[in-house]
Amino acid sequence: MACWIGNGQVLRFKTSESKVNKNMKTVKEPVSSKEPVKRRKKLVIPEEPARMEVQEESATIEAQDQPAVTITIQSWATPVVGLMMLVLGLLGGYYLRPLILGQSSSTVPIVAPVAAISTTDNSAAQQDLMKTVVAQTRHFRGDPNAPVTIIEFGDFQCPFCGRHAATVGPQIDEQYIQSGKVRFGYFNFAFLGQESNWAAEAAECASDQNKFWEYHDMIYSSQTGENQGAFNKDNLKKFAEALGLDTSAFNECLDSGKYTQLIQEESSTASSMGVRSTPTFLINGQAIVGAQPFEIFQQTIDSFLK
After folding, report:
1. How high is the pLDDT of residue 66?
2. Regions in the chain scoring below 70 on pLDDT
3. d(CA 247, CA 235)
4. Which of 78, 229, 249, 267 has a CA-to-CA distance to 96 between 20 and 30 Å?
């Protein structure tokens, strides 16, 4: 939008009228007589001068009534053009930002994760990664000698982890774990907030009394939303009581923060391996990301059983 000084301003300059002095008398020349007389000079009264006007257009506006500066919008399209320029600027910044950051990142060292979880690679590197994860996983169910090992990276507040635990998990247990074909492990990746950490610590405290999986299932079946109080310490203690645990030992374990550092280390390890979301599963080194339907797991498991 621009500021324009309005056209059409007319300035009129007016000279003040000369007035005849009414007190001035004129002397008329007397009627001729026989006696010679002297002629007197006549007084010449100046005529009224003509008015002088300065006019630019047809309209006449008194100078004293006209504002000094007038701001007008030249066209209705002006604000539209301004809005378009703003939108183009925002879009340009959004799409050019990666290029700018890409140029500037050359001066900043980037630390790559120890390994990246791949959903398609089943190379020797992925097999080595699987061995590393299995060695660091604390909780398994199923035959230790099963031909297929599944490791889940989970967060107890993750609703998709809860969905898997309620639907696909029991199917895998029934068809593969109980038959000795699959060993299933759980690896903590607590990243959704304080209650995720507390729930993971509580599960470890339950593990001290050999009740990890029972407590695992109870937590997932008790989800009501992230960091809404469902997994505060009081509720976690009630879960232990409902499972018949030694509440005195459990409460002391939870209140003391016995497993706080362990959960932080496991979550950091998962992140360094390339885990970026929950649930993420490693099946003999091959990754499945998300709460996928049972058929996806079945296809992958069966491919290793052939």
Report:
1. 54
2. 1-79, 81, 92-123
3. 12
4. 78
Q: Which of 215, 198, 217 lies closest to 207, judged by CA? A: 215
**Total Cβ atoms within 10 A of residue 80:** 10
Whether residue 137 contacts residue 153, with contact meaning beta carbons closer than 8 Å, is answered with: no
DSSP state of 270: H
Give CA–CA dist 182/275, Å, rounded: 22
- Residue 285: per-residue pLDDT: 92
Residue 284, phi-psi category: left (phi > 0), alpha (psi -120 to 50), beta (remainder): left
> What per-residue confidence (pLDDT) applies to 173?
97
Task: DSSP letter for 266, please.
Answer: H
Q: How many residues does the chain have?
A: 306
Q: What is the pLDDT of residues 16-41, one digit of tens each?
A: 343 334 444 333 444 444 444 445 54
Total-model pTM: 0.61
Query: Which residue type, as a one-letter code, is found at position 209?
Result: Q
Residue 77: per-residue pLDDT: 64
Cα distance from N-terminal residue to C-terminal residue, the chain: 73
Residue 53 to residue 11: CA distance in whole angstroms? 8
User: How many CA within 13 A on the CB side of residue 218?
Assistant: 21
The CA distances from residue 70 to 7, 10, 78, 80, 172, in Å, are 9, 14, 17, 22, 79
Q: State the Cα torsion 33-36-41-44 to the nearest 10°.
A: 20
Parse the chain into domains and list their residue ranges. 77-107, 124-305
The residue among 290, 13, 305 whose CA lies nearest residue 182 is 305
Q: Which pLDDT score is estimated for 205?
A: 98
Which of 150, 146, 155, 166 is closest to 296 using CA atoms?
Answer: 150
